[in-house]
Design brief:
- By secondary structure, this protein is of the alpha/beta class.
- It has a single domain, classed as P-loop containing nucleotide triphosphate hydrolases (Rossmann fold).
- It contains 11 helices and 8 strands.
- Strand 7, helix 8 and strand 8 form a beta-alpha-beta unit.
- The termini are far apart.
- About 10% of the residues have low confidence.
Length: about 290
């Protein structure tokens, strides 16, 4: 599958204690410095590529390896993590932001062994980044990080200011794409913006719904060639794209989504579940300290 080319048209949770106000470095849009969780933003150039599926199942696979994992639904206003996990929360991140609930009231354990903070859906006030949303999201993440080994921020798709701010708080970025040309074009556009605005030296890529073994590595190589030509970091060096793995097209995925079940838990031997487990292993070996 050909990569895009540059053109003018291409664009049981622990209690949460109170924490002080967010540090100025984080308010400037830089990754939060924390002695707690490793913060990873899971994002995509376009919707419909399986980003939330990857976030939820990767969290379950990491939890199975003994890590304390939290997924924060940072797709403010268009949240669907609750649907994937078959959860019906009484309180959400919206209630924390509006002062109607304490943070520890919205941390929900899941059957997959990890915790989630779910966001409300259908709320137009979260379609743009206001100072209130910015500060509250910052405060929430800073209060949660000491209690976990890894925090996955399941962001929205695209390059809106809300998405870019959420991604800016993470020390690592995992872009989810599929082999479809529209997905690759939008993934390239998102990566280009992240390199320009956040001076990312590297970004990690997982290719979902691949047809053949090796497709994702080939796609990563093709995208890297385009990045080498057209995208440079603040140091003047090309941004490095790190291939984290492929998840093959697998009918078990649709079945699990329709049943609102975690694939790695209910069909662990399926090709896609095995691929997510391998992805968790690569995360563990390259990003995370040994599980306690």
């Amino acid at each position: 599958m050909a990569a895009p080319t540059e053109s003018p048209s291409m664009p049981g949770a622990p209690p949460v204690a109170s924490a002080p106000a967010a540090a100025s470095s984080a308010q400037d849009g830089r990754p939060i410095q924390s002695t707690g969780a490793r913060i990873v933003a899971v994002t995509s150039g376009k919707g419909g590529v399986g980003k939330t599926f990857v976030s939820a199942n990767l969290a379950a696979a990491l939890a199975r390896r003994g890590h304390r994992v939290l997924v924060l639904d940072a797709d403010l206003g268009l949240a669907n993590l609750d649907v994937v996990l078959n959860l019906y929360p009484k309180l959400t991140l919206h209630d924390v932001i509006t002062g109607k609930a304490q943070l520890d009231e919205v941390v929900v354990p899941t059957p997959g062994g990890f915790s989630v903070v779910l966001a409300g859906s259908g709320m137009v006030e979260y379609s743009r980044l206001t100072p209130e949303v910015r500060n509250e999201l910052l405060r929430v993440i800073e209060q949660l990080t000491p209690h976990y080994d890894v925090m996955l921020l399941d962001t929205g798709a695209g390059i809106s200011d809300v998405v870019l701010f959420s991604v800016s708080l993470a020390s690592e970025v995992l872009v989810v794409a599929t082999p479809e040309p529209t997905s690759l074009t939008d993934a390239y556009a998102a990566i280009k913006v992240l390199a320009a605005q956040q001076d990312r030296q590297h970004i990690r890529l997982v290719v979902n719904q691949t047809a053949r073994p090796g497709d994702g590595r080939a796609i990563t190589s093709q995208l890297q060639q385009v990045l080498n030509r057209f995208v440079a970091t603040g140091s003047g060096q090309p941004l490095r794209l790190i291939h984290m793995g492929d998840i093959p097209a697998d009918p078990s995925v649709r079945d699990a989504v329709m049943r609102r079940q975690l694939l790695v838990q209910h069909m662990p031997g399926s090709p896609a579940a095995l691929a997510v487990s391998q992805l968790a292993g690569k995360f563990e070996s390259t990003l995370l300290p040994p599980a306690s």
